[in-house]
Design goal:
This protein is α/β, with parallel strands linked by helices. The protein is built from 14 helices and nine strands. The termini are far apart. Helix 2 runs antiparallel to helix 10 (250-284). The protein has one domain: Bacterial extracellular solute-binding protein, family 7 (D-Maltodextrin-Binding Protein, domain 2), CATH 3.40.190.
């Protein structure tokens, strides 16, 4: 090899080296409040396959289930501190960190999953994700928790009057407290990991979650009734630590975003497919299921309209107006 060729080869190696260094060996811990048989696991597995391919196996994704690394709020705070990499959490437990997320807790905001997808994957979803950056949180993707329904041990919920006096576990945020107080229940804020035992011991009568969560958490073992209230749709956030994200190369950051989106399609599909199957398992286990007439549902919706006005200052009236404007556009209003 001539000196000219040697210098050329050396220059090529020097140019190639930084490109190789753009992807380092990394172990990423993912905290979850849900059980391992939840559709979130399908999304994480799709994300793991994606990162394996994109990093040539340099990344290891370790999922921790059922609040093993702390509840969703604790895990999210660990992200902000830069001591943990990822958490997949419902929006509701972390409204104290990002108040704008409370918009998703407003009762009966979305009529169906198609509306939710259009809002979350569109301009409004990007707007909320940008707001989260100031809190040290990077939202990689919107996944699905789903429409929430009430289960209880007192009576089937068929009308507004049926909510009266039922001791109901709610998530630890003021909008759910307001909603269920307005409906006439006795709401009790409680971490998700405590719910099964509280239902089993009779400390509370009721809880509200999507069918998949009721199924995978085996709440049907300690609940007599489940009613299709569909009072709220809550998404999952795939959150990454802002401080840690900044230490990743641009290429690694893009891999995280792309692979979280790859997981999104798989997770949402699994969630919707399993919702019907979960309801079947719940009823087969002996929990009585009922739907609510449209007339009674309209009365329930009307009863909680004041929740929007009372929580506008906390969420931001501009945020509520923005999502309602996009929904009106989607509905052709």
């Amino acid at each position: 090899m001539t000196m000219k060729h040697l210098l050329a080869a050396t220059a090529l190696v020097a140019l190639a080296a930084p490109v190789q260094a753009q992807v380092q060996e990394r172990t990423i811990r993912i905290s979850n409040g849900v059980a391992e048989d939840h559709p979130v696991a399908d999304g994480i597995e799709a994300m793991r396959q994606c990162t394996d391919e994109r990093t040539d196996g340099a990344w290891t994704l370790n999922a921790f289930w059922s609040s093993a690394l702390g509840d969703d709020l604790q895990a999210t705070q660990a992200l902000r501190s830069g001591v943990q990499e990822m958490v997949i959490t419902s929006t509701s437990p972390i409204v104290g960190i990002v108040p704008e997320l409370g918009v998703f807790d407003l009762p009966f905001l979305f009529a169906n999953a198609e509306e939710a997808d259009a809002v979350l994957d569109g301009e409004f979803g990007e707007f909320i994700s940008e707001r989260m950056l100031d809190s040290g949180l990077v939202n990689l993707s919107w996944w699905e928790n789903g429409f929430r329904n009430l289960s209880n041990n007192v009576r089937p919920i068929e009308s507004l009057e049926d909510f009266q006096g039922i001791r109901t576990r709610v998530m630890q945020n003021n909008i759910f407290l307001d909603t269920f107080q307005t409906l006439g229940t006795n709401p009790t804020p409680m971490a998700f990991g405590e719910v099964f035992t509280a239902l089993e011991t009779g400390a509370i009568d009721a809880q509200e979650n999507p069918y998949v969560t009721i199924d995978t958490s085996q709440f049907y073992e300690v609940q007599d009734y489940v009613s299709a209230t569909q009072h709220a749709y809550t998404p999952f956030l795939v959150l990454f630590s802002g401080p840690i994200f900044q230490t990743y190369s641009e290429e690694e950051q893009q891999i995280l975003r792309d692979c979280a989106m790859a997981g999104q399609s798989v997770q949402r599909e699994a969630s919707r497919e399993l919702a019907g199957q979960s309801l079947e398992r719940i009823t087969e286990a002996g929990t009585a299921f009922n739907e609510i007439s449209e007339e009674n549902m309209a009365e329930i919706r009307d009863a909680v309209l004041g929740v929007y006005e009372r929580n506008a200052d906390t969420i931001g009236q501009d945020v509520i107006d923005r999502v309602q404007s996009q929904l009106a556009e989607i509905r052709g209003e």
